[in-house]
Amino acid sequence: MSVGGTGPRAPAPAPIIDFHDVTVAYGRRPVIWNVDLEIDAACLFGIIGPNGAGKSTLLKAALGLVPLVGGRVRFFGQPLGKVRSRVGYVPQRETVDWDFPVNVMDVVLMGTYGRLGWFRRPGSRERLLARESLDRVGLADLASRQIGRLSGGQQQRVFLARALAQQADVYLLDEPMAGVDVRSQEGIFRVLAELRAEGRLVVVVHHDLRTAAEWFDRVALVDMRLVAAGPAAAVLTPDNLRRTYAGHIDVLEELGQAVAKRGRTP
Amino acid sequence: MMPFDIAYNTLVVAAGVAAVGFAAGVVGGLCVLRKRALVGDAAAHATLVGVACAFLITGRRDLPMLLVGALLSAFAGLGVLVLLRRFTRTRDDAATAIVIGVSFGLGIALVSGIPAWGYPDSAGLEQFLLGHTAAITARDALLLTGVACGALAIVALICKEAALVAFDAAFAAAAGWPVALIDYLLVALVATMVVVGLPAVGAVLVTALVVIPPTAARFWTDRVGPMLLLGGAIGLVAALAGVVVSAARPGLATGPLVVLAAAVVFLVSFFAAPSRGWIARRMQQARLSRTWNLAADSSPGPASGGPDC
Amino acid sequence: MPWPGLASQVAGMLTPLVVLAAGCGPATSVVSPAGSAVAGISRPRIVATTTVVADLVRQIGGDRVAVDCLMAPGIDPHSYKPTPRDADRLAGADLVVASGLHLEGKLAGILERLGDRRPVAIAAEALPAEDLIAVGGGLHDPHVWFDPKLWSRCAPVVAEALARVDPAAAETYRERAAAYATRLLELDERLRSRIASIPPDRRVLVTAHDAFRYFGRAYGLEVVGVQGTSTESEAGLADINRLVDLVVNRGLPAVFIETSVSNRNVTALCEGARARGHQVVLGGTLHSDSLGGPGSNAETLEAALTRNVETIVAGLTVATGLEEATGEP
Predict the structure, then answer these.
(1) Percentage of residues of chain A with pLDDT beyond 90
(2) What does the alpha-carbon distance between residue A232 and residue C180 come to, in Å, rounded to a whole number?
(3) Which residues lie across from A48 on neighbouring strands?
(4) CB count, 10 Å around CB of C34?
């Protein structure tokens, strides 16, 4: 399913991300099934769906973190291995031990390691880049704090700063707003919007339907398979939501109405 | 210059054990960060099979050959460990336990069987695991120091990569770092140190020095670099303390004293370290609850403000 | 579920291997020549624990008995752990003979339980406590065979035990025991005169562990081991330093290693002494807790003790060039 704009039938440039017939399974249990999705414009792209729908898995499959049982994923028409420096990743916060002996600056510097390569240490240029990233997320004065002493929102912003330091063209974020207070969420969203304005693609796995319609230009509804993808208002219809959230009736009704209301707001 | 005459043997043993202590503390720091502290234990137990096989193949107790056998079987054991983790759903702790148990059991079976198969020189091969710390010769000390320096050089080279993988392996993999390769490298480093340290200090001592000093160091610092160096320093100090005490009174085995010294440092760190030690944290909590109680008393509503978000 | 696929396959492959290895039997149980079995009567099967005790039994029993030795030459009896096959061999014996005094430290339990079902003879039990060397904790030094006079008093114990098992030949055993005791006393004289050729100031025997105290007491040698009476204890740095001082101060030209004990401690000792400018060498290998294997010229106690004394005499009587030049002792 392609979500690009229409245009003359010249050979189209390769989509930024191209999921082709992607299937992922753990053992014999399929998690993601025959997903075909092309994202070919820089935008704020949300991947929405109920818990356990395989949203994170879709992201991890794109990054090569889980093996594909079928299909393939291409970035800029190439396998990820060739364009890694153009792809940034913000994993879920739970994957990390926050008691690790590093401070905020150390973590953000890790974003620069990719360009440094083996054996070289970060120098003044990397530190400058890290500082700028920290400024953008508003954590500049917490640079020497050990990461375990941060709140949830601050931790998320550290991860975001690390991704910014990667200076990528595509950013994949896995549930960046989970467990984060509203003010921090808005701060994070602001940064993501800036990235989109700079012409980068930002793909976000997101759990909250209420904010989804407000924030994202385009969304994909996922429930083990791709239910629908396209501009947010067009996709987030009660009908699509019913098909995605079948079984989560209470969520469906309440949020479907809220989304429909927003969709009608000029 | 010296107020007293230090015996030659004391100096040599001190040099050897200090080298092992420092290198083990540093390498062990990376293992502890990667949450694989027992890798050293697995390596040590896996060496017995290699020692027995080396003896069977060569028919003699030739130390270099036994060490080669030990190294190969340590690598094999750790290879099995990594494979178990990668290709089955076995968790780290279970996989380590399997490797330790099976390899050691096989090793003991071989070592007990060999004398019964009629090799007169084969008695006590499992003593190989105990080491004779007090009997370290100058050649041993040189070998230990050389390996220690090599290990430290490698750690210095890959420190940032190892810390990255230890902190966030998913991010590292997504960024293109060969996580498995870095893991193998760290594991190989530990195995080499364990094997080289075996005849001098024995399996238990090497394993202890890979785990206890870095864990103690963690209480004193919140950065990776200082933690590794401090872990090395604690290992070094424990080694020297053990040697000094063992040289002072007869009938005290050197190896166990080194481990005891490391344990003492750990206990002190656990209690007395500023801000992460037990005492400090108790005091912080007491201070916090005093502050909140005062605030609650003085303000009419729920306490305003909170941890900044 | 927690032991999936690969792990259980690996364990499954290794388990039979482990069982097989543990159960593999000895290839060198030394048995008396088969051709001399008494017609119609099977020979009594005697299982001895150490090679020294096995030798004693063979000297007294001769061709009338089949002697099976639990430990092969070169094995350290202090740390020897019995295998299930050993338990079978012991249980199938007509008589079990052990050295005693906790030499076979890890066999105590099995021997005690065996005592209910099979005859067990302890060679050293005939020796009164006042003739033994105490090592603290109510225990005594078990290395009694190094004093041939003392060991000769153990022969009657074995003879009586054999007589109970094979009454028809009781007299033969007693005669052979008496003859062997005489030979041991003659050996004692020979060894004494050999030792006398060592200069008095050199009569210090430094070995890997304290096995030679009876030897030293019998022949007037000062005896020092790096490890204690049992090899189970690890030597400490202070012990090694003390011995380095001893070797240097007394000007000893040689120290000795043993066949059944690791030579690391003694090697370190030599290096320490040499670092202080003193020429000391490894004088040779002594048979301490074990006799030699086939072809070693030390398969019997008499041969082993003779070889030991030759090695010691050769090592300690060598003139050190250093000594002649400086005139220091």
Answers:
(1) 57
(2) 107
(3) A206, A221
(4) 8
Q: What is the C-alpha separation between C93 and C49, in angstroms, rounded? A: 12
- Residue B117 CA to residue B125 CA, distance in Å, equals 14
pLDDT of residue B20 exceeding 60, the answer is yes
With touching defined as 3 or more inter-chain CB pairs under 8 Å, the answer for chains A and B is: yes
Average pLDDT over every residue of B32-40: 87
CB B197 within 8 A of CB B47: no
| Res. A227: pLDDT tops 50 | yes
Asked if residue B124 lies in contact with residue B189, where contact means CB atoms within 8 angstroms, the answer is no
Measured between CA atoms, how close is A169 to chain B, in angstroms?
13
| pLDDT at site C323 | 40
Tokens of B156: 């210095």
Contact (Cβ atoms closer than 8 angstroms) between residue A104 and residue A142: yes
Reduced to 3 states (helix: H, G, I; strand: E, B; else coil), residue B21 is: helix
Do C233 and B90 lie within an 8 Å CB cutoff? no
Q: Among the residues of chain C, which ranges form H helices?
A: 5-23, 51-61, 84-91, 108-114, 148-152, 155-165, 170-195, 213-219, 237-250, 264-275, 301-317, 321-326
Cβ distance A110 to B168 less than 8 Å, yes or no, reads yes
> How far apart (Å, rounded) are the C-alpha atoms in residues C60 and C301?
13
| Count of residues in chain C | 329
d(CA A147, CA B28): 22
Q: Reduce the DSSP state of residue A111 to 3 states and report it.
A: coil
Does residue B250 have a pLDDT over 60?
A: yes
CA distance B236 to chain A (A): 22
Q: Is the CB of residue B224 less than 8 Å from the CB of residue B32? A: no
What ipTM does the predicted assembly reach? 0.85
| Interface contacts B/C by beta carbons within 8 Å | 161
Report pTM.
0.80
Q: Is C312 on the interface with B (CB under 8 A)?
A: no
Q: How far apart are CA A247 and CA C145, in angstroms?
A: 88
* B178/A contact by beta carbon, under 8 A: no
Cβ contact A–C (≥3 pairs, < 8 Å)? no
pLDDT tens readout for residues A95-145: 899 999 999 999 999 999 999 989 999 999 999 999 999 999 999 999 999
More confident site: C9 or B92: B92
Nearest C-alpha neighbor of B180 from the set B83, B72, B277: B83
